[in-house]
Amino acid sequence: MGNRLDLLSREYLESPHAHLTELRRRGPVVQVDPGGMWLVTRYEEAQQVLKSASLFSSQGLRASAQPAWLQRVNPFADSLLFLDPPQHGRLRALVSRAFAPAALARLEARIRGVAREHVAGMMNQKNVDFVDAFAMPIPATVMGWLLGLDASLHQRFNRWANDLVTMSGVRPEDTGAMARYHQTLEEMERYFQGVLDDRRDAPRDDMASDLLRAQVEGEALTNHELLSFLYLLLVAGLETTVNLLNQCALVFSQHPELLLRLREDPALIPRFIEETLRYEPSVMATLRLCTQDVTLAGVELPRGALVLVSLASANRDEKYFPDGDRFILEREGPQRLSFGHGPHFCMGAMLSRLEARVALEEFVSRVERLELRTDHLDWTTALLVRGPVTLPVEVFAPESGQPVTARIA
Fold first, then answer.
1. What is the pTM of this model?
2. Which tens digit of pLDDT belongs to each residue from 101-119?
3. Range of the domain at 387
4. What is the pLDDT of residue 383?
5. How many domains would you assign to the chain?
6. CATH of the domain at 54
7. Contact assessment for residue 220 and residue 230, using Cβ atoms and an 8 Å cutoff
8. Is 308 helix (H, G, I), strand (E, B) or coil?
């Protein structure tokens, strides 16, 4: 409507950062389409919204709060994960032990073995899809372990995750896409219902069993809530790390000197990951709902207004990240908002960082150069998540052919 930017337009989805730069210049809170929602573009206001659950509720992701175009494409809309405090905190506690530092430390050797296997499979191939060969199978296997799923089905898990996240970028009138989406939901329901039925009969040490045993406010989760929770954990666990690793590969293709620096000094890998998270976050934005009339940065927002916090834009706010459109390995600055902020800070952030660190340690120890093998990338058409659909690359081993694993602690 008017000159409002449509966040589902191909123009925006293929090149969001140029548009976000212009929106930041316009102001910290700008009205956009679809639906006339309000986009938060700058760092301070983004932090303010994310930490103020009483004013900006996470129930913006619940079906009853959404416009018709979004209600039909959100399988997580009624997930208990989108409760506000204090119920939200009690629910997070149900699965928090799986993401505790001690639990994650026990996973590191297993993750390293998977990463080593998949980087070896990429060598000496002229054209390999980085997504399918490396970025996807590592987190998909790990989420299989944690949730109690068959990790060998990682390609199916990735297809489900892609289908679900891309539906937020599909118009409801696209009947073909809607049919594929509902087919995916039916497949997921059959599979996860089988997992739940199995764990009811024979509990294991996994999240599916933990959720079946759990109670919130004295009541067990309903079957619908269990399914919604498992869907969300799988999709969130995949999308964050898959797209983080994809973005790392794109940075290597654009800045080959950085790959060489990480080979020489793997201790720089955590810093490289943090700058990648700032530069191209896997989760572009998150939704909130105004619980009352509120003024944000001088803009009057009515009760019930949908607010979209652009994490990607906040992470390039020039006030806090000078020259924010450049990738700077030595960059300092405040906490990046890539995993959110406040009570809904991503509980899987430590796991995603661990997966990325171990995967990159194995990758840079065996690869000296990565080259992109396409002039055009297709991106996911999603409102909240962004990543390449495929990433054709060629990787080159050092002339010696020997990994530099001795440098990795």
1. 0.89
2. 888 899 999 999 999 999 9
3. 10-407
4. 82
5. 1
6. 1.10.630.10
7. no
8. strand
